[in-house]
């Protein structure tokens, strides 16, 4: 059994920060569950172009308000508490936060721990491991 507390993530080196966001990586590849689980904050006014070429991501909005744009179709979807979106086709997208957002995120394959977005807006398959 694995038990962790969000309030202890930064003390355990599980909080990763980059421009526009902060991710608390509560479950990672080294845990052996087959997916990773994160609580992520998207800062107010952040505009984040992303394209997860190596991962499928599922995102559930806990708090805040924003939108996601599907770059391929131009469709824009409102993100608010209770909304889930799944990037099941490695969808190139732009996430905008009109106010700070708190999101629960699941990645498959699981992240290793220290990933940040590369120039294409993706996470690499290999990164520094958090144990």
UniProtKB/TrEMBL annotation:
Catalytic reaction list: (2S)-4-acetamido-2-aminobutanoate = L-ectoine + H2O
EC number: 4.2.1.108
Enzyme class: lyase
Residue ranges crossing the lipid bilayer per the database entry: none
UniProt superkingdom: Bacteria
Keywords in alphabetical order: Lyase
Pathway: Amine and polyamine biosynthesis; ectoine biosynthesis; L-ectoine from L-aspartate 4-semialdehyde: step 3/3
NCBIfam families named among the record's database cross-references: PRK13290.1 (NF009806)
Role description: Catalyzes the circularization of gamma-N-acetyl-alpha,gamma-diaminobutyric acid (ADABA) to ectoine (1,4,5,6-tetrahydro-2-methyl-4-pyrimidine carboxylic acid), which is an excellent osmoprotectant.
Similarity comment: family membership: Belongs to the ectoine synthase family.
Name of the protein in question: L-ectoine synthase
Gene responsible for this protein: ectC
